[in-house]
């Protein structure tokens, strides 16, 4: 032993310091690096410690405790201690002192817990082990050792069953393992193998097995081993069994099949050395297990999706996540030999066998494994490489070239697009959504598709195009089954989305939308992965939408953009569903969509259309009177999104067109919003006077002052809308369908829907037509407009467009044509004089309008043109307010606004100088534009007025009567157009005034105004809500003119005094009789104006008392519109106020909208009271004069004490000419009706003018008696007045002798009486016993025979026509009821404009 290294003092002072010093010493040794010297020192120290124990100088238990602590210092310490015990075992065995041996045994026994038994058994003697109890008997242990050693080292294995020589196999392995890079061939090696088999008597099957083993180890040398195996001349079945045995060897629970085995199996399959069906049965797992696994995956995906849609408590969510993590850790994918073989086949390019294996499995099961998908992608890369390099590489792109497959059995690379159908399309279909693993291949396929589409679109030969159609359908299928699903699985790849849009935008939108529909509604249900992705996308979309506000649009928009790159359909579907519920999301959502790609915008357009067309959604609210809020929200979104972002509009426009074709007008709301937002064209009947005035100017003035919101920067968006309409030829079809749908709403859908909803749909259809037509007129070039809009006769006769809409569409065309022709004439003959310009303009008008004059003849019956000239008709319909007057005030107002803006910019010290400069330049340029536009319009209006002045003499022929002329004018011109738009309403009123100012022959202004104001019930009742506003605006403008004339004698004398429109004409007989014309003086005009106010009041009260929703709503709207000029007379205003107050009380609980209208009007009416005047101030009421002549008019029974009307000749003149023809026709119809009424037995069942019935038979008989009594009294009156010979009716059947002009003056009382009779006939208000106290005072005069009633009818003066007191009249009420029944046919005519005019003129 070496010198002692432990001092003896440590043992002596063990308890005090020796133990610690000893342990510290061991710690120092343990800290040294492992080396031979260290181990030697450690062994020496342990040896000395153990020797002190053996000698007895240290107790066993004390040493054992120290050793236990020391053994923990290093991992190899037990082995070192075991070595020490081995030395001591030998030494103590040789000692004679038995107690030392016992001490050693005790020490080792106490250390058994520290030193493993195996180490001790290796190093101690069997006797020592037996004494320690580690073995039972030392002798048996020695025998066992001998046996094991013999078996391991001396016994030979019997593996040469067929007596082969081992040397032969060694030489075989050497032969196969030699270097193959030289000139060594498989044929040469085969000869050597044959020699070895023969020489060493080797088993051929064992040799084949060794060849396969070596091939497996050297699998890169296919070109050597495949010919070798082919030449070996073995049976295919034997080879297949050997491979199968190798695969089965690796089918242990934790076994893993090496990739080299898959490779040699794939190579043998590719060269047809084995059959797939023979090998397939040896592979695991079974097909049934694969199917079960696939079903389980689908079920798990659906469960995950269900969990994501469920509402969970946060604690449950964390638990689920932890479970999922644990499952992921524990799950180890089992070895699938079929997939491994499939991957190897794909790696070497054997698509035929790979396809056969994939066909045995569920769809997309194989490619759902990443390794398979990547292998298939790599194969596709290699096949497509040549074609991609030739046709699809972008300019400037540099790609790494790929080496083609060496095997001749592999698929040939594609050189042309036709080659793609040989296998590429099929592979892609098997790959499906898992193309997402290779974005580069994705981009290559998309670029190839792009290149093909360009070739397809540029191909002109039809036969080639037909051949390419099959390829086109293949590309569409790939887009549907591969590209879009793969995009869903990609991680937010915006570049791929843009790349795909470059391909998709070459398809028409119909193809694209079909693809999006498949993607959204079917693709996500076909793949387990996509089921999960869909659920995750919806979950994420919910998270974002919950937090989206106006304040966080930018970050939320980025999140939406990120989510939309992969799964736009799912995201947009959820966003749209939220918008349909919460319309306040529209603005933040629209702002947040700015991070979308072009493809996403296109998908958004499709999703919007799909949401609009959802058959499960009702487009009406439950009350069936209003359009659903979800549709209104989507329409608003459409307008905002399509304006702000470059989204294709064709699909949406075609959808609206198709809906109109199907007779559905709800979706016109979308078109209205789109045009309003994109073109900045608003359609509203709530325009202010200033706005309406601005709308009569040029385009610049309209943009600045015509709309509520200043919609800027619409140039690009309106251009996009225009291009979409023109490219897809939708401009004219949309106009025609809207024009036809207006009537379709009423006649096709009206019976099924609530009247209120029908009116709203009609208004929406009409407003959208006006808005859309205005957009086309202002945005289409002259050539485009003329090319697309046919002439009026074609529009009306062939395309069945209503006349008002036809002229509305063609009006801009005629204006364009006239201006073009005018410019052409100016260039042809240069002349600067204004007179020459006017003549050229008139010549241009004649050339352009001459065909129009001929065309309009076919629109109406020939009889119409007896009174109106086609030239007048066409002129009326072709002009606009822009042509009649210049809105100087509007121009000045806008210019002043701009000046104020410039001033404010100058005073703004915070604005940067460059911005100041830009803003000032903008305002100045706008100001110049407005002034230039005003000047241009002024010149235009002067030319138009000059033209009208020359034309006016040929406008009206009046071959029948002036009354008939006015009837046709109102029926065919004024009434259809005044309800078309607010500007048209103003135009109609101004046109009537213009015709009057031009002193047009045969136009009776007085009669025209009289017919407009006399009975508005029919027109009001037949209007929709918006039409009522326009009609009210028309009446307001007419009343404005009347009020201007009424308010000042000087104005009246200047504008009406010597005008033919205010002549009163008395005719003796026929057309050729002597005429006397007299002018209506100012005071009599005031009487007539009062009569018109009275008539308006009577009609208004009638409508308010009917109880009909439409009547009440419309008359309240009209009254609100005409409030500035009516009522002016205090008692008429009080009568109206009383009726409106009653409406407020009755409708408060029943119909809130009527209540709101009535309350609004009532408040405004009270505010206007201060402007009302008593009747005697409005017109001069003459004192009653009792005439000595028998013809003096009595006020009738019950009117004693009331003033009678004086027989002023001037009054007779004033009224006679105005209503002469009207009364004649009324008398005829009245006489016929009276005759019919006498013979009627069911008169008590007939509705009166208010629509109420009187079924009481006793009342009917009483009315009959009253009627006979009244008739008898009037006969007696007539007999008492022999001086009142009736005047001849102009154009009547019985011509009578001409009377002197003075006769009419003498018979003024008779005329007054007839006028009062006329007033009573026109009254249609409901009369019964309860409401008799509210009746207007009436009188009737019924002539004895219709032939004797052809005398001259003279309107009573306004004094006679003033509203009577509302004192109840007991007498005459029943006779009036009977009279109303006899007029039932007149009052219940069709409520169209034309019918209304005819009835009111009857």
Automatic annotation (TrEMBL):
Annotated THO complex subunitTHOC2 C-terminal domain residues: 865-1165
Region span, Disordered: 315-336, 1179-1402
Record-annotated THO complex subunitTHOC2 N-terminal domain positions: 560-635
Subcellular location: Nucleus
Polar residues: bias regions: 1230-1246
Coiled coil: 888-951
Chief location: nucleus
InterPro entries membership: Tho2, THO_THOC2_C, THO_THOC2_N, THOC2_N
GO MF terms held by the record: mRNA binding
Feature: compositional bias, Low complexity: 1247-1259
Keyword Cell inner membrane tagged: no
Keywords tagged on the record: Coiled coil, Nucleus
Nucleus is among the record's keywords: yes
GO biological process, one term: mRNA processing
Residue intervals of the THO complex subunit 2 N-terminal domain: 9-393, 409-558
Biased composition (Basic and acidic residues): 316-335, 1213-1229, 1260-1281, 1290-1356
GO CC annotations on file: THO complex part of transcription export complex
Oligomeric and partner information: Component of the THO subcomplex, which is composed of THOC1, THOC2, THOC3, THOC5, THOC6 and THOC7. The THO subcomplex interacts with DDX39B to form the THO-DDX39B complex which multimerizes into a 28-subunit tetrameric assembly. Component of the transcription/export (TREX) complex at least composed of ALYREF/THOC4, DDX39B, SARNP/CIP29, CHTOP and the THO subcomplex; in the complex interacts with THOC1, THOC3, THOC5, THOC7 and DDX39B. TREX seems to have a dynamic structure involving ATP-dependent remodeling. Interacts with POLDIP3 and ZC3H11A.
Family annotation (PANTHER family): THO COMPLEX SUBUNIT 2, THO2 PROTEIN
Family label: Belongs to the THOC2 family.
UniProt protein name: THO complex subunit 2
